[in-house]
Structures are given as C-alpha cells and as structure tokens.
Amino acid sequence: MTSSLAAQPRRRPGVEEQRRVITAAAVGLFATRGSAATPIADICRAAAVSRDTFYRCFRDKEELIDHLYRTAVDEHILAVLDASDLDYANQAWLHRVFGQTIDSILEHHDVARFLYVESADPASPAYTIINEAYDKVSRRMQHWCRKHYGKAPSREYFRALLAAVQWLVHNAINQGLGPREVGKAKAAAEQLFHAAFTSLEVGAVSAEPGGG
Fold first, then answer.
1. Looking at the 3D structure of the chain, how many domains does it have?
2. Tens digits of per-residue pLDDT, 48-70?
3. Which of 1, 41, 197, 199 is the most buried (most CB within 10 A)?
4. 48 and 80, same domain (yes or no)
5. What's the CA gap between 29 and 17, in Å, rounded?
6. Residues 52, 81: one domain?
7. What's the start-to-end Cα distance of the chain, in Å?
8. Neighbours of 17 (CB within 10 A)
C-alpha cells in the first residue's frame, strides 16, 4: 500500500526564501573575493540554485547588491527619516535613534563590512548605490533644516557626516563588535550629528537660505 505522504509533491521554496539563500551565499563570496571577482555562476553554485532561480529573484548582480544595501542598511536609515518625531537637534532623540539604527545595521555586520569596502571602488555597483542613497538622505536633511532654520548646508556637508558614521560602524566591526567598541561608535555618531545641527542654530555653519 502506497503511503499518502509519499505521493505529496515536494513544496517548492518561495521567491523570498530563495532570495535569502542566494544573498547569504553571495555575502560569503563577496566578503572574500569582492563582487567583481564573483560571477553569478559561483553564487548559484554556493547557494545550490539554478541560474533560472537566480534570475527569478534578481535581475542581475547589481540588483542583488542593491537588495543587500536596502535590507541591511537603507531601510533602517529611512525608518529614522520618516519618524514622526524627527528632531536632529535633540540630543535625547539622537541618542535613541543612533542606538537603535546602529544596532540594526550591526545585525548584518557582514553585509555592512562588504559594502563599506566596496563603496571605495568607483567601479563597484556598491559605490553608485551608496552614493545615490547618501544623496537622497542629504536632501531629506536639507529639507528638515530649511523647514526649521530657513537655511541648510550643502549636500556635501551632510554626505560627509554620513560617511563619518559609516566609518564608525565599520571600525566597530573591525574592533570585534564588543560592547565598548559599539558604544563608542554610537556616542561619536550622536556627538557628530548634535554638533552639526546645533551649530546651525547659532550660525556657526555657513548656509544659504534654500541653498543646495
């Protein structure tokens, strides 16, 4: 007698599940080789999926890297930018937000490390992806400043702040992610932003009304 269980077809993994398998395999390869030296065929082999499955999940390797950035970093930053209580000049707010955001990013510290290293190479997709994200965030911070102060520093000013925070996170990763190292990264990021925004209140930073 044939078992009814044996007759049941094996469930095919969904796209989201396949994406998780592919991204996990890709991060491991990217971390040791870099994305440029990692062909899609090797990612498929490491993930034990077919090329058809890869292309069902991602258009190309650049979309895969964009997915890594958005899920590991950008979504946490955008959650802060969309907060109803957004207040860059409030140190208590900054303390809470940087604590939560850096903790969230460090949950994917292998992705954060890879993105930081790759973003230094103008030929890497990560360079373009991160620079476009920095530009978007800088525009949002300029808008907040104009609304509250009637003026705003240049986007380059804010991009420099974001790059400094990225370095602080990367340094905490390289130092082993101990509580002391992570705490220092959070405190320094908080201090940088608090000084940057409060300086606008006293006019210490040059800015033009509505300038970009």
1. 2
2. 999 999 999 999 999 999 999 99
3. 197
4. no
5. 19
6. no
7. 76
8. 11
Tokens 């009637």 correspond to what residue?
150
Report the CATH number at residue 67: 1.10.357
pLDDT at 209 over 90: no
Residue 76 shares a structural domain with residue 4: no
Q: Provide the domain limits for residue 110.
A: 62-201
Q: Are residues 115 and 144 in the same domain?
A: yes
Q: Quick one: how far is CA 83 from the chain centroid?
A: 17
Q: What pLDDT is recorded for position 15?
A: 84
| Burial environment of residue 82 by CB neighbours within 10 A (0 to 12, 13 to 18, 19 or more) | exposed
Average pLDDT of the residues in 74-101: 87
Residue whose pair of structure tokens reads 């994917």 in the numeric block: 108
- Tell me which of 31-35, 54-58, 106-110, 180-184 is least confident: 31-35
